[in-house]
Design a protein that fits this description.
single chain; about 230 residues; mainly alpha; 11 helices; about 0% strand; disordered C terminus
Length: about 230
């Protein structure tokens, strides 16, 4: 076996084991109040600690929505979105590599029929399918990250599409956290921030229907035997 591949698998295995151990021994940190207190106590290490936590949450398939909102509460809309994106991308990258180089058979067995849909769509549409799944959460973020690892989608396309198309939802929910903090702190602009947050989330709710129509229209316009590069 290739030495480089062995090293990759060993490194990924150690990272997964460490992530699971750390998360099991720090389960209380998933409480948003505890998390906020810990991050505020971390001082200059708060951003690094937060990105680390977000990363292992994605790899471990722990829902990261609480962390996304917490990012907005603790760091504000811009830095919060930046740190949320950093953690999400790091986690998505690790999940992809774990699936591709270490646990492809396990992923295939776990996903079963759902993987067939992913494989067929990824083969036909490439990065467009990645973009669609990131904008329209048909599957949980971590599940689709692992599933795409066993497809032939290039990693560069996977990462670029994830980075670009996760951003709208990430900003919306980060801003929702920021708006929530504004309400609790008695900010005079709180009502404006809440309405803006609701508007952003409303766009995300209606966007999937619009995108599904575009996607179905494109599919119907292509010859059944044609693939999209």
């Amino acid at each position: 076996m290739n030495v480089a591949l062995v090293l990759i698998r060993l490194t990924l295995t150690l990272l997964v084991l460490f992530a699971i151990f750390w998360l099991v021994t720090h389960r209380d940190i998933l409480d948003i109040g505890v998390l906020q207190a810990r991050l505020e106590d971390a001082g200059t290490w708060a951003s690094v600690s937060f990105i680390f936590l977000y990363t292992i949450s994605v790899v471990s398939c722990v829902p990261a929505s609480i962390l996304t909102v917490a990012g907005g509460i603790v760091f504000g809309p811009l830095l919060g979105t930046t740190y949320n994106m950093a953690g999400a991308l790091a986690g998505a990258t690790l999940a992809f590599f774990i699936s591709r180089y270490m646990a492809s058979e396990w992923v295939r067995a776990r996903l079963g029929a759902r993987l067939t849909v992913v494989l067929e769509s990824a083969e036909a549409e490439g990065w467009r399918f990645v973009a669609f799944t990131r904008l329209v959460p048909v599957f949980p973020f971590c599940v689709i990250s692992y599933a795409l690892g066993v497809t032939r989608v290039q990693f560069s396309h996977y990462l670029a599409a994830t980075m670009l198309f996760v951003l709208p939802g990430m900003f919306a929910f980060t801003y929702a956290g920021h708006a929530g903090r504004a309400v609790l702190s008695g900010d005079q602009d709180a009502s404006i921030k809440v309405w803006l947050a609701l508007g952003l989330i409303a766009v995300l709710i209606f966007l999937p229907r619009f995108l599904r129509r575009i996607r179905m229209h494109r599919k119907s316009g292509n010859h059944p035997g044609t693939t999209i590069e």
